[in-house]
Amino acid sequence: MIIHRLKLQNFGIYGEQTFDLTPQPCNGFNRPIILLRGKNGSGKTTLIEAVRLCLHGSLVLGSRVSRSAYEEYMARRIHVPLEANGHPTKARIELSLDYVSEGQKRTYDIEREWEVVQGNVREYVHILEDGKEIDDLQTREQRDSFLRELIPPGVADLFFFDGERLYTLAENGTSSDLLAETVKSLLGLDLVEQLQKDLDIYLSRQRARQGQQPLQDQLYELTEEISALEHERSGLRADQRANEKAIAKARRAIVKQEQQIASEGSWFAERLGELKLRRERLEAEIDLQRRRAQELTNGLMPFAIAPQMCLWVAERLRLEAEYEQGIAAQQVLADQIERVSGELATPEFWADTGLDVNSAARRKILAKLTSTLRQTIQIPEISKKEIILRVSEQNRQTLLNWIDLATTQAPQEFFQAIGHLNDLERELEQVNQKMLLVPADGTLGPLVEVLQRLNRELGGLQKTAADLEEQVRSLNYKLEQMGYQRERLRRQIVEQEQSDHRVQLVGKTQLVLEEYARDLQQEKIGLLEKKLVARFSDLCRKADLVDAIEIDPVTFEMTLYRQGHPFGFKQLSAGERQLLAMATMWALKEASGAPMPVIVDTPLGRLDSDHRLSLVQNYFPRASHQVVLLATDAEVDDQMLTWLTPAISRAYHLDYDASQGKTIVREDVLAVSAVSEKVTA
Questions:
Q1: By the 8 A CB rule, do 222 and 489 touch?
Q2: How far apart (Å, rounded) are the C-alpha atoms in residues 622 and 641?
C-alpha cells in the first residue's frame, strides 16, 4: 500500500491543503521518507487524525463512542478561520492510495465529507476503485464496513502511531493486549476464530430443521454469550488504553510540577526527592507483589475457595481408583481361575497329588477355591454409571497433588502475599501523606496544592486501572471456561450425528482449524521473538543488553533475558523502554509481512541524542517502503537532517499563522536543498 495524496478542506487548523506523499526513488535507491516538520501546535498530529478519520470514521474516537459524540467531534473539527466573512459549515478529507490484494494493484480514492445543517451533522463517504464507483456499496454504513475490511483499525494502530502512544507503551510495558490483538489481526487468526463461530452457527441450525435441537440450542446460546463477552472485553481494553494515556499524562504533569517546586525551594526539594525515591521503591514493590498475588490467583487459588468440593473430588478420584483396581484384579483373577479350573480337570494333576478324587468333589474344591480367592478382592459398592471422572492414573495423581496444594499451601501463600501487599500500601499511604505537607512559604504553597491535586488524580486513575484489569481478568476466566464448554458441545454434537456427513466434516474442520491456529500462532510468535531481539539490538547502543525475548503464547506477556537470565522491563532506562516499544512496532510489522506505510508523529522528543541518532540511522530509512515522519524542528535539527537526507523524497514545513488562524504549508527549503545536493553529488 502507498498513500499518494492527502487533501484537507476546512479540517482542524487547515484551510485547504494538499500533500503529495508519494516516495520518489533516485538513481536506483529507495527514498521512503516524507518529512513534515513544524513547531508544536502546527498541525502534525492533525494529519494522522485526518488519515484515520477518512479510513475509519467514528472508530477514530474508539469502539464505544456514541453517534452523537462522534457528530459533536466532527462539528468541532470544522476549521474556524479568523476572517469575519463567515463560518464554514463543511469539511472534507480526501485520500488517494494504491492497495495490492491477491496480486492485483488497485487505486482507491476515498472522500469523507460532512456538513452542519440546522445543528445536525450529515456525513457522506465516497469510494472510487480504479476511478469507478463500487456497485455493491450503496450506503454509508456499507462503505465504512468496506474500508474497515480493507485496512482494519487494529492494523492502522500498528502502522499509524504517535509519540503519545509510544510513551504509553514505554511507561507501562509493551502491552500484552496490544500484542494479542495485533498478532491475531495481522496473522489472520481473527478470521479463523470467526470461521469457527460460523461453523458453530451451522452446527446449531442443522438439527433445528429436524425438530431435535437441545445441544444445538446450547451451542448457539453459548456462542452468542461468548461474542457478547468478547465485545465487552474489547470495550474494556479500549478503556484501559485511554486510562493508560491519562496516567502517562498525569505522571508527566507531576514530574513537571515537582521540578518547578524543586527550583523554588531547595530544602523542600531535598525532602521531596527523598520521599519520591521512597515512593518509587514502594510502588515497584507493590507492583511486584500484585503480580505475585495475580499469579497465585491464576494458579490453584480459585480451587481453594471451595475446599469441600476439592475434598469431594479427591475422595471420588480415590474411590474410582479402587473401583478400577478391583475391576482389573477381578479380570486377572478370572483368568487365573479359568487356568486353575483347566488344571483341576486334567487326570495328570490328580495323579501327581496321589489323591483319588471324583468329579463331584473336584467341582466342590474348585467352587470353594474360587469363592475364597474372590473374597480377597474388595470393590467399592458403586455402579459403573457412577464412574464419572474417568482419568488416567497419571492424571489422577496430578489432580490429587493439585488438590492437596490447593487446600494447604496455596491459601497460605496467597494470604501471605496479600498481607505483605497491604503493609506496602499502608506504607505508601504514609509517604503520600507526608508529601502532602504544604510548607509555609507563600510561593511554594500554591505549587504544592497543584501537586496534591495531580497526585489525587493519578491515584484515581491508578484505581481505575486496577478495576479495569480485574474486570478484564474476570472476563478472560469466563471466556476460557466457556471455550472448554463450547469444545465439549462441539464434540457431543459430532458424536451424536455419526450418520450426518456434513456434521462430521464440520467437526473435523474445527479440529483442523484449532490445530492450525495454534501451530501458526506458535510459529509466528517464535519469528516475532527473533525479530524483536534483532530490531531492539539495531536501535539500542548496548548490543548485549537483551539477548533473548520470550512471549507467552497464551497471555502474550513479554519476558526479557540477558545472558540467559530474565530481568524486569523496569530495569531498562526510559530511553531504552521507548526504543523497545518502537522495536515492538517494527518487529510486528515485519512479522506480519503487510506492505503498509508507516506514519509516525513526534517519536524523538523524549530520547537523548544517542537514541535519536539510532532511530534516524537505523529505523526510519528501513521501517517501510513509505515513511511519513512528522517531527518538530527540535527533533529533526540540521544535524539530524543531514543523517536523514539520503532517505528523504519530499519535505514540507508546517507554520501556524496566528493572524489567519490556520497552518501554512511550504516546501521545507533546507531539507529539499539538502536532498538536491545529495542527489547531485
A1: yes
A2: 16
Beta bridge partners of 599: 160, 628
Cβ count within 10 A of residue 637: 13
Q: Is the model more confident about 127 or about 162?
A: 127
Residue 631, classed as helix, strand or coil, is: strand
Give the pLDDT confidence of 465-487 residue by residue, as tens digits: 888 888 888 888 888 888 888 87
Q: DSSP assignment, residue 26?
A: B
335 to each of 144, 270, 326, 341, 342, how far by Cα in Å?
Answer: 74, 88, 14, 10, 11
- Which SS3 state, helix, strand or coil, does residue 197 take? helix
Locate the domains of the chain by residue range.
188-301+411-516, 307-389
Rounded distance, CA 458 to CA 462, Å? 6
Give 301-332 pLDDT, tens digit per residue: 777 777 777 787 777 777 777 777 777 777 77
DSSP for 165-180 reads HHHHHHHH-S-HHHHH
| CA nearest to 229, candidates 237, 217, 218 | 237
- Residue 209: the pLDDT is 46
Cβ(546)–Cβ(539) below 8 Å:
no
* Residue 161 grid coordinates: 502511531
> Per-residue pLDDT tens for 73-121?
999 999 887 665 667 889 999 999 998 877 788 999 999 999 999 889 9
Residues paired with residue 528 on neighbouring β-strands, in sequence order: none
Asked if 282 contacts 424 with a C-beta cutoff of 8 angstroms, the reply is yes
- For residue 497, the model assigns a pLDDT of 64
List % helix, strand, coil for the chain (3-state, nearest 5).
Answer: 65, 15, 20
CA angle 437–440–446, rounded 5-degree value = 75
Closest C-alpha to 129, from 94, 97, 152, 93: 97
Return contacts of 192-201, CB within 8 angstroms, 24+ apart. 192/513, 192/516, 192/517, 193/517, 195/513, 196/510, 196/513, 196/514, 197/223, 197/227, 199/506, 199/509, 199/510, 199/513, 200/486, 200/490
DSSP one-letter code for 438? P
Secondary structure string (H, E, C) spanning 484-527: HHHHHHHHHHHHHCCCCHHHHHHHHHHHHHHHHHHHHHHHHHHH
The pLDDT-based confidence of 681 (bands split at 50, 70, 90) is very low
- When the pLDDT of each residue in the chain is averaged and rounded to a whole number, the result is 79
CA quadruple 59, 65, 67, 69: dihedral sign: negative
> Kind of pairing, strands 558-562 and 565-567?
antiparallel
Per-residue buried b or exposed e for 650-667, using 16+ beta carbons within 10 Å of the residue's own CB: bbbbbebeeeeebbbbee
Compute the Cα dihedral for 351, 357, 363, 365 and give only its sign. negative
Q: What is the DSSP-derived secondary structure letter of residue 139?
A: S
The owner of cell 452446527 is: 203
Q: pLDDT tens-digit profile of 49-77?
A: 999 999 999 888 877 778 888 999 999 99
Report the distance separating Cα 132 and Cα 129, nearest Å: 5
Q: Quote the pLDDT of residue 589.
A: 81
Checking DSSP bridges between strand 2-11 and strand 14-20, what pairing results, if any?
A: antiparallel
- Cβ burial 383-405 (10 Å sphere, 16+ → b, else e): eeeeeeeeeeeeebeebeebbeb
The CA distance from 389 to 329, in Å, is 20
119 CB-contact burial (10 Å; exposed 0-12 / middle 13-18 / buried 19+): exposed
Q: Describe the crossing of helices 214-264 and 444-496 by its angle, rounded to 10 degrees.
A: 160
Measured in degrees and rounded to the nearest 5, phi and psi for residue 497 equal: -105, 55
Q: Please spell the DSSP secondary structure of 35-82, one letter per residue.
A: EEEE-TTSSHHHHHHHHHHHHHGGGGG-TT--HHHHHHHHHHTB---S
CB 67 within 8 A of CB 39: no
